[in-house]
Amino acid sequence: MRILQKLFGITDKKFLNAFSQAGTIGLHMVSGIAVGAVVGYLLDRWLDTRPWLTVIFLVVGIVAGFKNVYVDSRRLIAAQQREEEEEDRRKREQTQGGQERTQQGYVRKDAEKGPPED
Questions:
Q1: How far apart are CA 9 and CA 86, in angstroms?
Q2: Which of 67, 43, 65 is closest to 54 using CA atoms?
Q3: What confidence tens digit (pLDDT) does each residue in 87-102 have?
Q4: Rounded to whole angstroms, what are the CA distances from 81 to 5, 25, 86, 106?
Q5: Is the distance from CB of 23 to CB of 6 less than 8 angstroms?
Q6: DSSP string spanning 13-64?
Q7: Is this model's pTM higher than 0.70 or not?
Q8: Measured on CA atoms in the order 87, 89, 94, 98, is the torsion positive or negative?
Q9: Integer Cα distance of 87 and 94 in angstroms
Q10: SS3 116
Q11: pLDDT per residue over 28-45, tens digit each?
Q12: What is the largest CA-CA distance in the chain?
């Protein structure tokens, strides 16, 4: 994240966090496919079964890559929901605290005035 801050002058923490998480999701997708393809290729060379194990392990790698993206996305969505709930809770507390202070202020002012005059 510091590289992005230095190169592009980006200082928004939420943007940088989202950018890094998106990069992680992409790497998980590619790494699953790459590992599946390499393992299949090496097994094909060793067992002389070309191209069957490469194809099979490539499909397994694709499935693993999509599973990784699904899990990462669910984790990201859950984290965003927790952040939003926490932010909403803070706003409610600030609003309620302000109303209580205002109500207390009105009570004091009314008490200082004394009984209403007719």
A1: 28
A2: 43
A3: 999 998 888 766 655 5
A4: 26, 18, 9, 37
A5: no
A6: HHHHHHHHHHHHHHHHHHHHHHHHHHHHHHHHHHHT-TTHHHHHHHHHHHHH
A7: no
A8: positive
A9: 11
A10: coil
A11: 999 999 999 999 999 999
A12: 106
- Cβ atoms 65, 33 nearer than 8 A: yes
Q: How many residues does the chain have?
A: 118
Angle at 6 between CA 73 and CA 78, to 5 degrees: 15
The torsion angles phi and psi of 10, rounded to 5 degrees, stand at -85, 125
Contact, 39 vs 54, CB < 8 A? no
Average pLDDT, the chain: 83
Between helix 52-113 and helix 13-47 the angle, nearest 10°, is 160
> Tokens 């790497």 label which residue?
27
As a whole-number percent, the residues of the chain with pLDDT over 70 amount to 77
Residue type, 5: Q
